[in-house]
Write a structure and sequence with these properties.
The complex is a heterodimer of chains A (111) and B (109). In chain A, a hairpin with a 2-residue loop joins β5 and β6. With 111 residues, chain A is mostly beta strands. By secondary structure, chain B is mainly beta. In chain B, 0% of the residues lie in helices and 61% in strands. In chain B, the strands form two sheets. In chain B, strands 2, 4, 5, 9, 10 and 11 form a six-stranded mixed beta sheet that branches. In chain B, β4 and β5 form a beta hairpin. Chain B is globular, with a radius of gyration of 13 Å. The relative contact order of chain B is 0.34. The chains are: A mainly beta (111), B mainly beta (109). Chains A and B meet through β10 of A and β4, β9 and β10 of B.
Chain lengths: 111, 109
């Protein structure tokens, strides 16, 4: 495996479900990010982790809960989501805030 | 506040018809300007980084240029496989990254 891997690629969940998105980076980078991408809108930064420590939380609702157990893995735990949370969720990694590399994303649909 | 505006929102070209995509920005101290290509259902793929006004970079049919207020991505003699969404992002000196909404390019054979 190379680069940044995200699973699952697609996810459909009901508003009462709990699910998790997974991201793994194989680049030896020291920072990882969650972004939300909605149609015709710029990427929105959600969370930043540097060396496993969360350094940024961009006023994201508490129904999104990140977890970074080590510098290679990042999770986004989802619960009681709303239909407007449907989007492409992208994970990225960087080394000292350079060389941003993105995963292929998880297409989330909330029904 | 840092801002990135890309235009046009969508662009349709005939194969071989050269054109340019625009990225206008305001940032409190530019660390770098980035261009990415994004195919449907995939994450953004890095194309170029530009650091200072006057800098240019080329890759195959693509050429990126930078001024103090904007960047252009010039596409020369595009092919259908160049169809994608092109994203621009600026990074400020505090390392904050801000993305534009993208230009969706379609190249017809």
């Amino acid at each position: 495996e190379t680069g940044v891997t995200q699973t699952p690629r697609h996810l459909v969940m009901g508003m009462t479900n709990k699910k998790s998105l997974k991201c793994e980076q194989h680049l030896g980078h020291n920072a990882m990010y969650w972004y939300k991408q909605s149609a015709k809108k710029p990427l929105e930064l959600m969370f930043v982790y540097n060396f496993k420590e969360q350094t940024e939380n961009n006023s994201v609702p508490s129904r999104f809960s990140p977890e970074c157990p080590n510098s290679s893995h990042l999770f986004l735990h989802l619960h009681t989501l709303q239909p407007e949370d449907s989007a492409l969720y992208l994970c990225a990694s960087s080394q000292d805030s350079t060389d941003y590399t993105f995963g292929s994303g998880t297409r989330l649909t909330v029904v | 506040e840092d801002q990135v505006t890309q235009s046009p929102e969508a662009l349709r070209l005939q194969e071989g018809e050269s054109s340019s995509l625009n990225c206008s920005y305001t940032v409190s101290g530019l660390r770098g300007l980035f261009w990415y290509r994004q195919d449907p259902g995939k994450g953004p793929e890095f194309l170029f980084t530009l650091y200072s006004a006057g800098e240019e970079k080329e890759k195959e049919r693509l050429k990126a240029t930078l001024t103090k207020k904007e960047s252009f991505l010039h596409i020369t003699a595009p092919k259908p496989e160049d169809s994608a969404t092109y994203l621009c992002a600026v990074q400020a000196r505090n390392n904050d990254m801000r993305f534009g909404a993208g230009t969706r390019l379609t190249v017809k054979p």
